[in-house]
Predict the structure.
Amino acid sequence: MSNAPLIGIVAGEKSGDILGAGLISALREIYPDAEFMGVGGPDMIALGFNSFADMERISVMGFVEPLGRLPELYALKKRLREFFAERRPLVFIGIDYPVFNLKLEEELKQNNIKTVHYVSPSLWAYREKRIHKVKRAVDLMLTLFPFETAVYTQHGVDVKCVGHPLADTIGFEDEKLSSRERFDLDSDDSVVALMPGSRSGEIKRLAPVFLAAALEALQDCPKLKFLIPYSSAANKAQIDALLREESIIQGEQFFLVDDSHAAISAADLVVLSSGTATLEVLLLRRPMIVGYKLAAITFAIASRIVKIPYVALPNLLAGRQLVPEYIQHDLTVEKVREEIVGHMTGTEDHEALMQEFERIHKSLRLDASVQAAQAIASLIEKDSNQ
């Protein structure tokens, strides 16, 4: 067994893998000999992280969808708990994935292991009573957005807003022309990016609406071109099948591309699923239409407990509606078509929207990975000095 100091991390999905990789790099500046073990994805593994399980196996969302994986998830949590109880890491860090990580954190904290949760659960949106579980589970909460800290401060949970790494990595220059060159698009083309999500369920529910709306928009704007980024071979195959169902021929006005960042930058307008991608669109300063559909049972549960007026991150960050959002039954082909046509044929000045996007960008540009690593190191040192 290695005598190197150990830092435990569990990330449950792609966005957590990206956050975890940035955090590992920053922590290595402070703890160069540390080992990093737990569950992570390819970005973390590329930095020498030792993952006990395939991150994709635990990447399930919603209230109902994880039920089929419960035996596997329970077995993994037990294995991690027993391993960390024996190896005694300097700290355990759960990145997002709150249903799994908060329970594991609570069990490890009861065993006198310092615990950090990175990415706030949506207590401000629903389940505020869950704050008591968080308080039992974590020694430090690291949030990405300023509006998330109040509930923790109110209940005496140590909290720090570190900003969002995307705001650090995305600059303020406009990359539209260079991105269009990459896709062989002309500077004066009218371009819409369609982004129905990265999970199979999201694509199944959203892509048919987005594609049908795009086809109808072509009747009013026949020169429109649509970029559809994909994040994996499985995503590409699923979207390709949906294109065939709609008799859409790729390479004419619809293009599957493998770079969402470039697709957003190349676009005049982005139609996308609610989630982290909306933040990327904001940071790249593109107008957007946000839509989302949950599984029917999940939506029935969520609609009873969610208490916020918006779901799209740009609207939450602004505290008002900056961008149009359509959820569940409100997300229709006709409404999306109207939004696309209205934007592409209208004369509305988006300068005020772009200025607000820039203000939000600056507020989140805090060197997140370094801030998070320093806060974690302070927790570790505080423990060792007591």
Notes: Residues 176-364 form a domain with the Rossmann fold fold (CATH 3.40.50.2000). The mean pLDDT is 89. Residues 196 and 206 are 5 Å apart (CA to CA).
